[in-house]
Every structure is written in structure tokens, then in C-alpha cells.
Design a protein that fits this description.
Number of helices: 10
Largest sheet: 7 strands, parallel
Strand order of the largest sheet: 11-12-10-13-15-16-17
Strand content: 35-45%
Mean pLDDT: 92
Oligomer: single chain
Number of strands: 59
Structural class: mainly beta
Radius of gyration: 37 Å
Length: 904
């Protein structure tokens, strides 16, 4: 009788679900296997109504649920028992060799017991509900998936790789320079960021005294990790490019060989974590994605920031690593200085159609760098919020502010290339200062109404809703759990819905509609009606007791103009080398402007360009010549002038280290015609301090420290040049070159070039015969770095020399031993004997005579045969390989001369 009832229920359920569930029929059990099961197929509506535990969301209609075996027959209506195939990953394929699989379970103890019963003993525990095993596909499908303790099986790449080549930096593109000017006291004090990577170099001059020790840090030090740490909070000691966003923040290192989230206690109080690495392109929601969502849901003040990847040339859905498919994290792409996407920047959508990346920031080298920029900005935001509100900034609020403050790029609204746009650090901090943030919580079917006032001259109203969602089950086809809906009602009762994208047509522009995929929703209104504006948040479905959320909003005022770069204290070019566009904000619709520059505090103006499109909000200006000056910019709009702050035009002086010898270091640099003096700075502790002002373009010191130089002009100083590097002692000890060579047949010429003349009292030429040294020439009037000696009485055969530099303190610096082979009465003089490929070999005869020149490899193969028909002969060693060669010259009278030459 029980079997009959079960079959009857199965038939009813099959009829009721079959019309729209055919695409999931591979998960259904066969009729003769029917019994009360642990897992069932049903509709989301039925799961929500009966409060079933959803273990895998299949699409927007159906899911797999876990039930208790004691459920009544009535409660099993609208449900179908399933086989074990739903536990397998979407990328599952047949293979005979063992491959790694991540197995999830509610009870780790039961899982390990069950796996061992299948003779699987190589089990690596990843956390309290995940293990890693290796197996062939048949065993996974037939045995492992059948275990009742197994809730999901995934295949994920766990090998991280970095996603930038070198550090590049330009704070103007993300308005960090403006933020530093508007908020000069915000430098990241009392904030800590995590760099999940290799270990950064704690002795690097840009991150001195920043490291907080942790048990999670790597033992491997890398340039990439050091670069990421520098972008986040570098001190700027090496150069402008060594200056970080949050200069006074501190750092914790976490080894990215474990790419699962670190335990909270190992973060040492850090609330922002940088992840500038990826694995391979993975379009699914794996254990990593679920783990990060879980940690962020449980730790609401923590923010994880991921690079999108550098595989954008693969097209859409090119994000590297399934952990970046997490909902509660931030994923970053990158743009160039014109705010155009870099072709390699990985694109969304996420595997289930969600908007990824969420944001972009500047870098031309890789999404690693743009991510570190974002981490630094978030660090400043968290410091500012704590200062203003005396409490922590939540992850949901952090994301809402970042996304709402971003500059929309690409097509109107979000897209799968730029996400919600380019981060604007200054606007983020102003949103916090002006408290344009709303927080709340709600339950299913509840609607919260929030009201803001929109002034009469407002435009471009933007409202962003973000919530930290519950983690989805591993391998879920749709990751959204709690569904909130945003709508905005303006004063005239017009209703505006958020932007939504169609992941099946990723190039299409965003449209307005209900969003059932994302835990981020945004409404923009170009010309809002003034007055009271209502923001309605509805809990369409909340699986837990309640769901908290955050809202950020902003609007512009009409006909406003503001300079963003350069602003007070900025340098142009921004790093003293690279031209970057002038930038501004403008709310003048369809207007143009005239751009001018003044070098005399506004007394005279030079027009740079007229008819500039203000909507472009940038203009690239390349000066015709380098100059060092204070300057101002002016944008004239409808006869109104908008004048910038004073800024500095100056260039890097290209510091060179000319001497590291005998305890002394000498540096020199370019000396522009209009610069009369220079300020010298010395590294003290973790920053530079003024040492002295000089007029020369070189400087010596003996403390082994790090120095830099600035040009002085107009009662101010220019940009600090890239600081002098530290070299090993005596690594650059006066001699740039030194050589000895036969000259005019019967002399030896000894040439030398020096890096520096510092402290040299005299120069001596020493000749060495039978290990006896004697001074044969001296230079006392030293005024050139290049010089030579002549030995007019060389001995036949090998002649040896060295050059001694006698310093003012009577220390002696000697060159290496120099050799010249003088043959005296030989018939022919061959030079040079050390010669480059395709260069000419000169053969000078002592008298006119017929002869033939032969060139052999060291193994005896003849490569060149050439007649010698004059006193001076040239032979081009065309296409001659590098190596040692033997030459032979045979005269018409039968005399023979041989020797060696070296080709490099």
C-alpha cells in the first residue's frame, strides 16, 4: 500500500512539474527507485513556502532541497526525488587518471569515515566542511556522489598567479590626488590592510615599519607582493611611484598559496584584504566563492577586493578564479589614463549573469595594480567613516559608496566591461562626510520607505542599494539567496526601476527592470523632479530572520565646474615624466570651454585650446618645451572663468650614481637652464628630511644612506626625483673603462674613462715588467673624465700596465691589469683583436708586398680567405659567429705570421 501511495504522489508531482522542468530531467530518479529520500527536486516557490533547505538553486524557478525522511506524503507533493548527478560540478567530464576534487559535507567526521570506506585515504582537510581528494571520474560519479554525507563535489583551481607585471601609478585618474587635497588628515592611520600574495619586502624603502607579523605570511618574498603593498600604503621614498594611497596604514601578509579565506584572528584587526592574483577562467560558484561569501556575511565590516584578471582578450566571462564569482566581494578591472578599458582587463558577466567586475581603476600593467588602488581607497574610507561616525564602515556600505560614487563609463548604466564605472576616491569620502548613506533591514514581503530631498537645480540623481547576501550552496546555478528590490519614486510619482543587463547578450545596453540576480541595484535619473523622493526597498524573499542593507545616494547641481587635476600641491607631469590629462567635473550640459594657462599667478594667460567639450571632463596637454614654474589653469565657460589652484610644473632630474667607492657615494643629475639651486633630502627613519641647498648638479656623501633632489624655483620646489639607489660598497669604483692597444705600429696607447673625478689628486700610469712595477707617466692637472697615456718604448711581446688614482686622502684606487701584445718587427699589424660581428678588421703591412690572409675557426675550418694588396687592408667579418679564431698570413716570399682574434 505504501509503495502505491508513493508512486501515486510521484505521478501527480511529475505531471505538475514536467512542463517546465524538462531541462533538469537528468537529475530525476527512475520510477522503480522511488522511496523517501534526503534530496528532492522542486520549485523555489514550494521550497520557500515549506521552508525547505535549498542545497542547489538550478535556475530562477527550480532547485534541489534537503528534507527530513519523516516528511508526510502530502508534504512531498510538488517534489521529485533526485539521483546524485546534481552533486557534480558543471565542468565534470570523464577521465581515467586521478584529478583533484573538493568534497563538501555538513559533517566532516562522517565524510572522512565514508571516504575511507571507499579506500580513499589521501584526504586533505581544507576547512571544517571541505576536503580535497584525488580520484578518477567513474569513482566520483558512482561511489563518492552516492555517499549521503556528500553535499557537493567541485573541481577548482587552487594555484594562484599574480596579475600585473610592474608597478604603475597615477592618482589623478581615480581622484586620489583630489582626495588627498580635500582630506589632508586622512592617511590611513590606525588602519591595517591584508596583502594576500607572497611576502612583501619589509626592508623596501617605501614600506618601512609597516609590517605586522602573522602566522599566515609567506616565506617567499616577491616584487609583486612588494608592489601591491606599495600601491596600498607606500611612503613614496623611492619616487612618486612609490607613494601609496593610504600612506600611514600598516600591513599584514597572507600567503596566497592558500587561497581560501584566512581565519579572522590571523588578520590582526585588518578589515580590508587585497587579492591581486587569479587562477584560471572559472565560470561557476565553487567552494571558494561560497567560502568568501560566508566569511563576508558573518563578518560585516570586512571587505575582500579581487582583481578581475588579465584575460580580457578571451572575451566575455573571462574572470580568473571562481572565488571572484562571490557576491559580497569587489572585483576590479582596469582602465588607462583616458579611462578607456585596457584590452586585457577581464570581463563579466559572472557565471549566473551578475554584474562583474563591479568597478574599474587605473592601471596599464594589470588588474593587480587597479585592485591595490581600490584597497588603498577603501582603507581611507574606513578611516574616515570611523572618524566621522565613531563606528566601523560595513562591507555593504563600502560597496554602496564606491559604486554610487563611480564615474559611469562605456554605455549608460552598468555593463560587463566597466561594471558600474571608475572609482572616484574624492566623491567616496564626501559621501561619508555628507552622510549620504542610509542603512536598514527587513524581512520577507516587508517594504521600507526612505525619503531624501532633491533640490530644484539637481541633475544626475544616483541611488545604489547593496546587501551582504548569504552564501549560496556550492555549484548553485544561481547564487542569489535573499532578494531585495529597489524602486525610486520622484515627487511627481514617477517610478524608476534599477538597471538590469541581459547576460545572454552582454554587449546590449542596460535596461530598467526588476533585478533577480544581483545583490547590487542602482537607479539613475538624469533630470529628477525636485522635492521629496522616496526610496522603496522590498524584501521579495528573505530566507533568514532579516536582511540588512545599505544605500548611498548623490546628485549634481546644474552648471557647476570643478578642477580635479591638477589641484593644490599637484605636479605636472604627475610623476615628473609622464603627461597625464587635465581633469575636471562639469555639470554644464552641451557646453564648451576655453582652456588657458598662466605662469605668473594669473597676470597673463596663454590659450591652450578653445571649443573644448566639457562633457569629456579631460584634456591632454603636451607642452612644447620643459619648464619649471608655478602655474594655474583657467576654463572659461560662457564668460565665466573657473581658475585652478596653484600647481607645480617640474620634471624628474634623472639622478645617476656616478661613484660608489672608498666609502664615498657621488650622485649627479640634469641641470635645467632655468634652475640655479637644488634641495638635498636624506632618508631618516621612514621618510625624507631636508639636508641642505646647493647650486651644483652633483653631491657626495659617505653615510651610505638614500638621497633625493628637488629643483628650487619661484620660492618653491619641484617634484622629488627618483631617489638614488643603494649599491654595494666599491661596486662603482671610478673606472668606467680602461684598455691598452698598439698605436702607430711602435707605441702602446692606454685609454681610460672615469665615472667621477671626485677627490682625485693625481693619476699615474704604472708599467709592470717581470712583476716589477714602475711609474712611467703622471697626470696632475685633472679636468676630464677621459684621458690616455702613451708608452713610446714598448717591449716586444706582452706589455702590462695599470692606472692608479691617488685620492686626496692618499688612498689608491687601481684599474685592472691591462695587456698589449707588441710584435715589433712582425710583417703585419692586425687590430683590433677583440672585434664585434660585422665590424672591420684592419691589417697594416710594414711594407708593400703580396700576401694572403686566412681566418680559421678553433677547430681548423677556413672561414675567410682574402688577398692583402696594399699597406692598409680592411676585412669585414660579415656573418661571423662569436668565438676565438686563428689567422694566418702568408707572403709571396713564403713568410708566415699567425695569431688569434676574438669575435663577440
Amino acid at each position: 500500500m505504501k509503495t502505491t501511495i508513493t508512486f501515486f504522489i510521484f505521478m501527480i508531482t511529475t505531471i505538475s512539474l514536467s512542463q517546465s522542468s524538462d531541462k533538469w530531467k537528468q537529475y530525476m530518479k527512475k520510477e522503480n527507485d522511488i522511496k523517501f529520500e534526503k534530496y528532492y527536486f522542486t520549485s523555489l516557490e514550494n521550497a520557500h513556502l515549506n521552508h525547505y533547505k535549498i542545497v542547489k538553486k538550478l535556475d530562477s524557478t527550480f532547485c534541489i532541497v534537503e528534507t527530513q525522511s519523516s516528511r508526510s506524503g502530502k508534504s512531498l507533493q510538488k517534489m521529485l526525488p533526485v539521483n546524485n548527478l546534481w552533486k557534480l560540478p558543471s565542468n565534470f567530464s570523464n577521465h581515467n587518471e586521478d584529478k583533484p576534487y573538493i568534497i563538501a559535507a555538513d559533517s566532516l567526521q562522517n565524510l572522512i569515515y565514508d571516504l575511507k570506506s571507499l579506500n580513499i585515504t589521501d584526504i586533505k582537510i581544507l576547512n571544517d566542511h571541505l576536503v580535497l581528494i584525488k580520484s578518477d571520474s567513474k569513482k566520483i560519479m558512482d561511489q563518492v556522489a552516492a555517499l549521503s554525507s556528500v553535499s557537493s563535489i567541485s573541481q577548482e583551481s587552487l594555484l594562484a598567479k599574480t596579475e600585473s607585471k610592474i608597478t604603475d601609478q597615477n592618482f589623478s585618474i581615480n581622484y586620489i590626488n583630489k582626495a588627498h587635497t580635500d582630506f589632508p588628515l586622512l592617511r590611513g592611520e590606525d588602519q591595517t590592510a591584508v596583502i594576500k600574495d607572497d611576502f612583501f619586502d619589509v626592508n623596501d624603502v617605501d614600506i618601512l615599519n609597516k609590517h605586522i607579523a602573522s602566522t599566515t605570511q609567506s616565506a617567499v618574498v616577491s616584487n609583486h607582493a612588494t608592489a601591491m603593498a606599495t600601491i596600498v600604503c607606500g611612503l613614496g621614498n623611492s619616487s612618486v611611484l612609490g607613494k601609496g594611497v593610504a600612506q600611514k596604514a600598516r600591513l599584514v601578509s597572507s600567503d596566497f598559496m592558500n587561497i581560501y579565506p584566512d581565519e579572522i584572528e590571523t588578520l590582526k584587526g585588518a578589515t580590508t584584504a587585497n587579492h591581486s592574483y587569479g587562477t584560471i577562467i572559472e565560470n561557476f560558484y565553487g567552494s571558494l566563492a561560497s567560502a568568501y561569501d560566508d566569511q563576508l556575511f558573518l563578518n560585516t565590516d570586512l571587505t575582500h577586493c579581487f582583481s578581475s584578471g588579465n584575460t580580457g582578450l578571451e572575451g566575455y566571462k573571462s574572470i580568473t578564479g571562481n572565488f571572484k564569482q562571490s557576491k559580497n566581494s569587489i572585483v576590479m578591472g582596469c582602465v588607462d589614463q583616458n579611462e578607456v578599458i585596457m584590452p586585457f582587463s577581464s570581463k563579466g558577466p559572472a557565471y549566473d549573469g551578475r554584474i562583474k567586475p563591479e568597478l574599474v581603476a587605473f592601471s596599464t600593467q594589470g588588474t593587480s595594480n587597479s585592485t591595490a588602488l581600490a584597497t588603498g581607497i577603501i582603507t581611507l574610507m574606513k578611516q574616515h567613516y570611523k572618524n566621522v561616525h565613531n563606528k566601523a564602515l560595513t562591507n555593504a556600505a563600502t560597496k554602496a559608496i564606491l559604486i554610487n560614487s563611480a564615474k559611469d563609463l562605456g554605455s549608460t548604466g552598468p555593463d560587463f566591461t566597466y561594471g558600474y564605472g571608475n572609482i572616484n576616491a574624492d566623491k567616496c569620502l564626501k559621501t561619508i562626510s555628507e552622510n549620504r548613506i542610509i542603512s536598514g533591514s527587513l524581512t520577507s514581503a516587508q517594504t521600507n520607505a526612505h525619503t531624501i530631498n532633491v533640490p530644484e537645480n539637481a541633475k544626475n540623481l544616483k541611488i545604489t542599494l547593496v546587501w551582504n547576501d548569504l552564501p549560496a550552496a556550492i555549484n548553485s546555478n544561481i547564487s542569489l539567496i535573499n532578494d531585495l528590490d529597489l524602486e525610486v519614486i520622484t515627487a511627481d510619482n514617477s517610478v524608476f526601476l534599477p538597471w538590469v543587463l541581459n547576460p545572454n547578450f552582454p554587449e546590449q545596453q542596460a535596461q530598467r527592470g526588476k533585478d533577480k540576480l544581483n545583490n547590487i541595484e542602482q537607479v539613475t535619473i538624469e533630470n529628477p523632479i525636485s522635492g521629496s523622493c522616496t526610496i522603496n526597498i522590498t524584501g521579495s524573499y528573505i530566507s533568514n530572520t532579516s536582511q540588512s542593507y545599505s544605500i548611498a545616494y548623490e546628485y549634481e547641481l546644474e552648471n557647476q565646474f570643478q578642477w580635479n587635476y591638477p589641484v593644490a600641491n599637484d605636479n605636472f607631469p604627475y610623476d615628473g615624466k609622464t603627461i597625464s590629462p587635465f581633469k575636471w567635473d562639469s555639470s554644464f550640459s552641451g557646453s564648451s570651454g576655453k582652456l588657458s594657462i598662466s605662469y605668473d599667478n594669473g597676470q597673463n594667460w596663454e590659450i591652450i585650446a578653445d571649443g573644448i567639450n566639457l562633457d569629456s571632463e579631460q584634456f591632454t596637454y603636451t607642452p612644447s618645451e620643459k619648464r619649471f614654474s608655478k602655474a594655474k589653469l583657467k576654463m572659461t565657460i560662457n564668460d565665466t572663468a573657473y581658475i585652478s589652484d596653484d600647481f607645480i610644473i617640474s620634471y624628474d632630474l634623472n639622478i645617476r650614481t656616478s661613484l660608489v667607492c672608498d666609502g664615498t657615494t657621488e650622485i649627479n643629475w640634469d641641470k635645467p637652464a632655468d634652475i640655479a639651486s637644488f634641495n638635498i633630502y636624506q632618508l631618516q627613519g621612514d621618510g625624507f628630511e631636508f639636508k641642505e641647498q646647493i647650486t651644483a648638479a652633483d653631491y657626495t656623501y659617505s653615510d651610505g644612506n638614500i638621497y633625493t633632489v628637488t629643483p628650487v624655483f619661484d620660492n618653491s620646489e619641484g617634484i622629488k626625483s627618483e631617489s638614488a639607489l643603494q649599491y654595494a660598497q666599491n661596486s662603482n669604483c671610478y673606472f668606467e673603462l680602461a684598455s691598452a692597444e698598439i698605436y702607430q705600429e711602435d707605441k702602446v696607447k692606454i685609454d681610460a674613462g672615469l665615472f667621477s673625478l671626485y677627490n682625485i689628486k693625481r693619476i699615474e700610469l704604472v708599467k709592470i715588467i717581470n712583476n716589477v712595477q714602475s711609474i712611467i707617466s703622471t697626470i696632475s692637472d685633472i679636468n676630464s673624465k677621459t684621458f690616455y697615456f702613451l708608452d713610446t718604448e714598448p717591449v716586444k711581446g706582452r706589455n702590462q700596465y695599470k692606472i692608479n688614482l691617488i685620492l686626496e686622502n692618499n688612498n689608491v684606487i687601481s684599474s685592472s691589469i691591462l695587456d698589449a701584445d707588441y710584435r715589433d718587427s712582425d710583417f703585419f699589424f692586425i687590430h683590433p683583436t677583440l672585434i664585434g660581428k660585422n665590424e672591420e678588421l684592419f691589417i697594416e703591412a710594414s711594407k708593400e708586398q703580396n700576401a694572403v690572409f686566412y681566418l680559421y675557426t678553433i677547430s681548423g675550418q677556413n672561414t675567410i680567405t682574402s688577398p692583402l694588396i696594399s699597406l692598409t687592408n680592411t676585412i669585414t667579418l660579415k656573418n661571423t659567429a662569436s668565438g676565438i679564431y686563428i689567422y694566418k698570413i702568408i707572403t709571396g716570399s713564403g713568410k708566415v705570421q699567425t695569431g688569434k682574434i676574438a669575435v663577440f
